[in-house]
Amino acid sequence: MAQDLILPTCYLPNLSYFNQLSNADTFALEKYEHFPKQTFRTRTQIATANGILELIIPIIHGKKDRVPMKDVRINYDEPWQRLHWMSIQTAYRRSAYFEFYEDDFRPFYEQKETFLFDFHLKQLQVLLKMLKLEKEIHFTDSFEEIADTSLDRRKIIHPKKPSLISHPVPYYQVFEEKNGFIPNLSIIDLLFNQGPQAKAYL
């Protein structure tokens, strides 16, 4: 039996993430890693009229930093949900498929999930359905270092590391005339602009 590709849980993951996921026979989400700061675990990137905008989910920082990913709690002291949803609407309301998908995304910005992992998991389940990717989601049952780096994407899909798609093919983006094509954004950029063709692009 083939070993699972290990993926982190990310906020509205980017195209590198979904490229890896869509081409994997099986994959598992990492539940037990110690939460790493300044990664895509809490942030995503979208295209706006002013270029790339990072949307960041605030978390509750406990007395100890070494918190397993599955136990990280979302912080609702500030109205980040309203701000994120307004930013997404402003960026994509002119895209071809935003109205087609918006009702599926809206609940994530109205309902309050306690744990970051659960929030990401529910988003991923919705995204897999939208992309028509029939993938069974597995989970790690402990943290392990993986010798085969081709199976481990926990540290490679990172804001400070290059995209795993080495020669991205441009697709239409709302603000392309102003900003040029911006590669490796959140999967929602591809979905809102390409709709049903998003799976073929991946």
Explain what the structure shows.
The protein has one domain. Helix content is 31%, strand content 10%. The chain has helices at 15-23, 80-92, 98-105, 116-131, 176-179, 187-194, 198-201; strands spanning 5-7, 27-29, 43-48, 51-56, 137-139. It has a three-stranded parallel sheet with strand order 1-2-5, with helices on one face. The mean pLDDT is 91.
Detail the topology: elements first, then pairings.
Blueprint: E1 5-7, H1 15-23, E2 27-29, E3 43-48, E4 51-56, H2 80-92, H3 98-105, H4 116-131, E5 137-139, H5 176-179, H6 187-194, H7 198-201
Parallel strand pairs: 1-2, 2-5
Antiparallel strand pairs: 3-4
Characterize this entry briefly.
The chain is α/β, with parallel strands linked by helices and 202 residues long. The protein has seven helices and five strands, in the order E-H-E-E-E-H-H-H-E-H-H-H.
> Count of helices?
7
- List the secondary-structure elements in sequence, H or E: EHEEEHHHEHHH
Q: Please state the overall shape, judged from the principal axes of the Cα atoms.
A: globular
Q: What is the radius of gyration? A: 16 Å
- Helix percentage: 25-40%
Strand content: 5-15%
